[in-house]
Amino acid sequence: MKILMYTVRPDEQGPINEWVKQHPDYHIDTNTVPLNADTVDLAKGYDGVVILQHASIPDPIVYQKLREFGIKQLSLRSTGYEIIDLAEATKNGLAVTNVPGYSPRSVSELVLADVMYLLRHLGEVREREQHGDFRWTNTEAKEIHTLTVGIIGAGKIGSAVARIFRALGATVIAADPIHRPDLNDTLTYVDHETVYKTADIVTMHTPLTDETHHMINAKVFKEMKSTAIFINASRGPVVKTEDLVDALDNKEIAAAAIDTFEGETPIVNHDLTGKPIHNDNLEKLLAMPNVNVSPHIGFYTEVAVQNMVEITLNDVETILQGKTSLHQVN
Ligand SMILES: NC(=O)C1=CN([C@@H]2O[C@H](COP(=O)(O)OP(=O)(O)OC[C@H]3O[C@@H](n4cnc5c(N)ncnc54)[C@H](O)[C@@H]3O)[C@@H](O)[C@H]2O)C=CC1
Ligand SMILES: O=C(O)C(=O)[C@H](O)COP(=O)(O)O
Fold first, then answer.
1. Which residues of the chain have pLDDT under 70?
2. Best exposed site among 81, 116, 272, 288 by fewest CB in 10 Å?
3. In Å, how far are 49, 94, 115, 266, 329 from 319, measured between CA atoms?
4. Residue span of the signal peptide, if any (predicted)?
């Protein structure tokens, strides 16, 4: 059996080689391009296709061609799968799989790092030190156990965030339509408005859907505490970025960390040294010492990369054997 993996990074090659060693009947080829209408022909002659990319695949021709090539699945090495047109995939007989829970700790530990960085004003401290100002002005910090952490979307990642902050003594509240009894000792479920109004740290962990698109906007920022820290490590378009910039400019919130942002595809994991980034809102956020921008690295840990590769390839194998993968999303 032959599998083609798109957009493979060098750090994924080790886990891929390990998987092939355990599965001698499979041959895997890799490339470094995203799947789209220009690159779909590369999949001709393969039995299975695996992708990982930020760019959406809206063009129906991609799904039609995969069907014409006799391919039965399209497996994502990611959790989020909003880049796929599921209706087109289904129409063309493609089972789409994702990797839920490859390592909820990966993203939740970045959230912890962001919160510590912002709570201790390390961005402001570093900015001042660079021009010789070593004073303590405005750097008195709050301790985590005195704070309320508000989670929007307490699924696999959101609940891992909840556990970390509960272990550090914070009060944790969450808004999620699904209430999990196993989290009863960790958090209290409340409505969205209560999270916005009462949390000292508001952190986003929903998927990107029609409902969550721009769910954080000017109206919501006005509800938050002026001392609040806002974090988005879910998907960029969950937040209306221009409203985030305004909320920070107008001191409606105190600080923010964003691991995902609108228009990130041409920026994330690219070296743009000396080149324009063509994203005005991002440039404004990058210039603020009370904002930490990271280029979608929440997932990027050794454990996560290993699991993303291994679980995806196991799913391809399952489908190629004529069975149904537990991770099929259509
Ligand atoms: N920054 C990064 O590198 C990464 C980001 N992600 C993003 O994080 C998202 C969440 O991942 P998981 O926790 O694994 O997914 P999950 O499916 O386990 O949890 C998502 C939770 O959000 C809840 N939810 C949906 N709509 C909601 C709404 N309107 N209000 C409140 N809650 C709502 C769901 O009920 C569910 O409990 C992914 O869909 C992906 O977009 C995932 C992995 C890495
Ligand atoms: O798994 C996800 O969802 C992520 O966000 C990871 O960062 C990787 O997926 P892409 O966003 O790069 O598709």
1. none
2. 272
3. 11, 10, 41, 32, 13
4. none
